Amino acid sequence: MSGNRRALRDVLIETAASLEKAGIDAPRMEARRLVCWAIGCEASGLLSLDTLPEEAAPRLEAGLAQRCARRPLALIEGETGFWTLTLSVSSDTLIPRGDSEALIEALLNLRPDKTGIHSVLDLGTGTGCLLLAVLSEYAQAYGVGVDLSPDAAALAHANAQRNALASRAGFLAGNWFSAISGQFDVIISNPPYIRSGDLAGLMPEVRDHEPARALIAGEDGLDAYRLIIAQAMAYLAPKGVLVFEIGQGQETDVIALAGSAGFVLVEARADLGGIIRALCFERSFVPSQSDA
């Protein structure tokens, strides 16, 4: 992919062909993104170019080689979009996916009063995508994100700064609730939910480039839900909501686990593929002041 002043149309066609040969879905779309990344322009910027700038050719060649080796495009670009945010990404965290936006949609449907949420806890925060998306919608809320990885917590903090939300977001390295005190109006989590035996069958982009600790949750994929649900009641405000992302087909098991701990399902929402992705729970019994 070297050469001087090559026609941009030819570059896009050849890049897409290489991606298709490597087994990449949507190769034409990814080719445009790679070329934009190499040039350093938005998609609309391609309209004003007839040829690939010479200085962009080595960068495109390197990026294309990485993508054909199945390195995720977002890791090559260094960022991705989620909800209304632009987030930096790294190999220390999962890459935010559009499917996870179902959790934000479910919460907004369940809590439409934008002044009614004041405190949010995000367990397994990763890039901070869920917490920051919630805070972007609920302007009076403050949130805490927790991740086992200090590097992930640092990245989430940087993303809060990038999106002008750092004054309302704090991030900690810790194991679920271990570093947390107090109660929250919202506890939200996209925990690991892949069964250990399914790791080898995941897409190379996920299996080889995203942290296994954020993916695998025991033989049945439910270990993280068990741990969170067992402790969540103590950290959830009396009228709070517990919001989970789940894997395909896990709704029955997670609803049963939550029900056995005193929670009742109040909202379920599918992703754009029609798969149930978000489950929201409240306490099945809210103590009155006289009971407290």
TrEMBL record:
Claim: S-adenosyl-L-methionine is one of the keywords in the record: yes
EC code(s) of this entry: 2.1.1.297
Domain of life: Bacteria
SUPFAM superfamilies per UniProt: S-adenosyl-L-methionine-dependent methyltransferases (SSF53335)
Single GO MF annotation: peptide chain release factor N(5)-glutamine methyltransferase activity
Residues binding S-adenosyl-L-methionine: 124-128, 147, 176, 190
Keywords assigned: Methyltransferase, S-adenosyl-L-methionine, Transferase
Reactions the enzyme catalyzes: L-glutaminyl-[peptide chain release factor] + S-adenosyl-L-methionine = N(5)-methyl-L-glutaminyl-[peptide chain release factor] + S-adenosyl-L-homocysteine + H(+)
Residues that bind substrate: 190-193
Domain Release factor glutamine methyltransferase N-terminal, residue spans: 11-78
InterPro entries: DNA_methylase_N6_adenine_CS (IPR002052), HemK-like (IPR004556), N5-glutamine_MTase (IPR050320), PrmC_N (IPR040758), RF_methyltr_PrmC (IPR019874), SAM-dependent_MTases_sf (IPR029063), Small_mtfrase_dom (IPR007848)
Top-level EC class as recorded in UniProt: transferase
Domain Methyltransferase small residues, every copy: 105-195
Gene Ontology biological process terms, A to Z: methylation
Matches recorded under PANTHER family: HEMK METHYLTRANSFERASE (PTHR18895), MTRF1L RELEASE FACTOR GLUTAMINE METHYLTRANSFERASE (PTHR18895:SF74)
Family: Belongs to the protein N5-glutamine methyltransferase family. PrmC subfamily.
Function: Methylates the class 1 translation termination release factors RF1/PrfA and RF2/PrfB on the glutamine residue of the universally conserved GGQ motif.
Protein name (database record): Release factor glutamine methyltransferase
